[in-house]
Design goal:
236 residues, mainly alpha, MetI-like fold
C-alpha cells in the first residue's frame, strides 16, 4: 500500500512538475498507439464490412481466421515483425527495427483483427431489411456500405476503443521490436517493466497511473461520440 500511495503522489508530481522524460514517454506512447489504431481502422473496417456483406467460397474459413486473429498473442506479432524487419529479413534494408515505426507496425498487426472482427459482428447484426431498403432506393454498393457503417457507428466506436486499448497496454511486442531505448522507443508500458526490474515500485506505479489516466481520457473522448443522435435513413 505504501508503494501504491507513493506511486500515485509521484505520478502527480511527474506530470505537474513537467518532467521532460515522462512527457516524452507519454507523447511517444500516444503517437505510436494512435497511429497504429488509425492503420487498424483503415484496414480492419473494410475487411470486416466486406466479410459481413459478401458471400464467396471460403468465407467461413476467412471469418474463422479473422476471429482467431483477434486472439493473436502480442509476442507472436512482435516475433513476426522482428523476422520481417531483421537486417537479414525481407524488409531489413529499411532499417525500421528498434524504431517507433516498428512498434506501430506490430501494434497495428495486433489491433487490425480486433477492429475487423468487431466490424464484422456490428454490420452482421444490422437488420437485413435496412440493406434491402437502401438498394430499393437506388443506392450503389459504396453508398450502401457507407450507410450501413453509419448505422453501425456506435458499435464501431467500441471497436476503436478495443483496438486502442489493446495497443496502448501492450508490452511484449513493443519490447521485442522497439528495444525500450531511452529517448527513442521507450513507452509507458516498457518503462514500467524497466522500473519493476530495478525494484523501483513507486515509479512503476506512477507510470501505471499515468497510463491508466491516458487510456481513460482517450476512451472517454470516444465514448462521448456515442451520445450523438443516431442518423436515420429518412433524413437524407
Amino acid at each position: 500500500m505504501n508503494d501504491l500511495s507513493a506511486g500515485f503522489m509521484e505520478a502527480v508530481q511527474l506530470l505537474i512538475g513537467g518532467n521532460a522524460e515522462v512527457w516524452e514517454i507519454v507523447f511517444l506512447s500516444l503517437r505510436v498507439s494512435l497511429f497504429a489504431t488509425a492503420v487498424a481502422l483503415l484496414l480492419g473496417i473494410p475487411v470486416g464490412a466486406g466479410l459481413a456483406l459478401a458471400r464467396f467460397p471460403g468465407r467461413s474459413f476467412a471469418v474463422g481466421a479473422l476471429y482467431a486473429g483477434m486472439g493473436l498473442p502480442p509476442i507472436v506479432a512482435g516475433l513476426l515483425v522482428s523476422v520481417l524487419l531483421w537486417r537479414n529479413g525481407p524488409f531489413g534494408a529499411a532499417g525500421l527495427l528498434y524504431t517507433p515505426a516498428a512498434m506501430a507496425i506490430a501494434q497495428a498487426l495486433i489491433a487490425t483483427p480486433i477492429v475487423a472482427g468487431l466490424t464484422l459482428a456490428s454490420v452482421s447484426a444490422l437488420d437485413p431489411r435496412y440493406r434491402m431498403q437502401l438498394l430499393a432506393l437506388g443506392a450503389g454498393r459504396a453508398q450502401t456500405v457507407w450507410w450501413l457503417l453509419r448505422e453501425a457507428r456506435f458499435p464501431l466506436i467500441a471497436a476503436v476503443v478495443a483496438g486502442f486499448g489493446a495497443v496502448i497496454s501492450e508490452v511484449g511486442a513493443a519490447m521485442m521490436v522497439g528495444g525500450n531505448i531511452k529517448g527513442e522507443t521507450r513507452v509507458l508500458t516498457t518503462a514500467t517493466v524497466l522500473e519493476v526490474s530495478r525494484g523501483h515500485f513507486d515509479t512503476a506505479f506512477a507510470l501505471s497511473f499515468v497510463l491508466l489516466g491516458l487510456t481513460y481520457l482517450v476512451t472517454m473522448s470516444l465514448a462521448l461520440l456515442q451520445r450523438q443522435p443516431r442518423p436515420h435513413l429518412a433524413s437524407r
